[in-house]
Amino acid sequence: MAKQKFARGVAVVGAGMSKFGAFPDRTSRDLFVEAFLEMKGTVDKGLDPGQIEAFYLGNFSSDQFEKQAHLAPIVASWVGLSPIPAMRVEDACASGGVALREAALAIASGMYDVVLVGGLEKMTDLPIAEVTEALATAADTQFEIPAGFTFPGFYAAMATAYLDQYDASPQALAHVSIKNHENGALNDKAQFGQRIADIMASKKARAEQKGLPVPEWKDELEFLADPKGNPNIAWPMSLFDCSPVSDGGVAVLLVAEEIAFRYTDSPIYIIGSGQASDGALTDRATLSHIPAAVEAGQQAYQMAGIGPQDIDFAEVHDCFTIAEIMATEDLGFFPRGEGWKAAMSGKTARDGEHPINTSGGLKAKGHPVGASGVGQVVEVWKQLRGVAGERQLPGNPRRGLTHNVGGSGQTCVVHIFERRD
Ligand code: COA
User: How far apart (Å, rounded) are the C-alpha atoms in residues 53 and 58?
Assistant: First the structure.
């Protein structure tokens, strides 16, 4: 692998996001403006938006979800950035991570010093069948979709292969969901601000109110094993194994390393960046891991000159619970076939040896697909600056990693961030 590095350093100096969720009464414009204003407020020494020289927007499919193509210049104008260059980056659910990388590369090339990265998706205005159909256009529509695949179906196939190959317990999937809901409950931006125990309690209360038999789940695992509480979506994926359909906007400000101190005394540096691609799932030799994620991770580690043992925490692409388990192996946090055991034994919890998805992840924080990769950066920014509130990791974490996957693994992008103060 060729040694890849930025020709000059790039730092994050501001980050903000809207709440993620289903917002029938809010427009894309409301969500992005909220994110932009929050980002602006986080720039310690202030930001004059007139200094922003270019805008990269991660968005999967505003054309299908909102009947609005050509989104980036329109969004740029909402926050007063016209006439700077504005471009939409589309790589399915990895759109946001790739937008971040393209923006970083534009700074590293010397072309710009100050670049805004956005992420935006408004998915919930369509009925679920149309959302599923729109998402499916990120797969191979010639062979895979006519065979009946949907995204829950792809990840169900991967889960089946993984569970079989490693003789893994399906309960490991439930542990990922419980942990991510625990984290999401501590994140006021999360779509599901409830622990699974809280969801169980409200379902019991609702049944009681309606005079229906009150379910007797003794704990979260029993609830998640009950198809009445957690219906099957595509075996072995049930409702609580899936990320939700979401609306959300995110904004992150990148600047050239040498001017970062004009904006803050505590920049977060991008020290590793990797990206890889692959064909459709049906063309791959393996279903139990994602080769492009391994490749992107190795590129990022090589550029940073570090390995998985040097990463304090990671936001990984848990579009389905199995995806988180595979990611923890693809990124080298655990050996192959050990990720499911790590999930079950608490090694990925906030107090575990490899904290994963402290934000709640896509599962609980929400997954406005093209925005998710930028949303991951907001969590890394907060954790590294020590402002993650109740979910703040102890011990002043120094390095965080983001892992963003498009489709069933056709695009993977990994970034490593470092605090130096
Ligand atoms: N996890 C947990 N609960 C969920 C949920 C999820 N992912 N999605 C919806 N719910 C809950 C809702 O809060 C609601 O609860 P309530 O009855 O207590 O109010 C209930 O389930 C029904 O919600 P609804 O919005 O009608 O669900 P739905 O059937 O329309 O959608 C899925 C459920 C799983 C089909 C949908 O979330 C989905 O398609 N997810 C995957 C998205 C995807 O593929 N993204 C791209 C990944 S690559």
Answer: 17
Pocket test for ligand 1, best of 158, 243, 320, 403 (most atoms within 8 A of CB): 243
Ligand 1 mean position, distance from CA 197 (Å): 17
Q: Which atom of ligand 1 is nearest to the CA of 405?
A: 48
Environment class of 44 (CB within 10 Å of its CB; exposed 0-12, middle 13-18, buried 19+): middle
Distances (CA, A) of 234 to 142, 160, 242: 21, 10, 10
The predicted-structure confidence for 172-229, as pLDDT tens digits, reads as follows 999 999 999 999 999 999 999 999 999 999 999 999 999 999 999 999 999 999 999 9
For residues 61 and 179, give the distance between their C-alpha atoms in angstroms, rounded to a whole number: 30
The response to whether residue 240 sits with its C-beta less than 6 Å from ligand 1 reads yes
pLDDT at site 3: 66
Closest CA to 412 of 347, 317, 329: 317
Residue 404 has pLDDT above 90, yes or no: yes
Residue 283 pairs with which residues in a beta bridge?
Answer: none
Residue 34 has pLDDT above 80, yes or no: yes
Q: Which two tokens stand for residue 41?
A: 């407020």
pLDDT tens, position by position, 97-128: 999 999 999 999 999 999 999 999 999 999 99
Task: Please state the atom number of ligand 1 nearest to the C-alpha of residue 22.
Answer: 25
Q: Give yes or no: 289 in active site.
A: no
Residues 6+ away with beta carbon under 8 Å from 24: 124, 125
Where does the pLDDT of residue 4 fall: very low under 50, low under 70, confident under 90, or very high at 90 and above?
confident
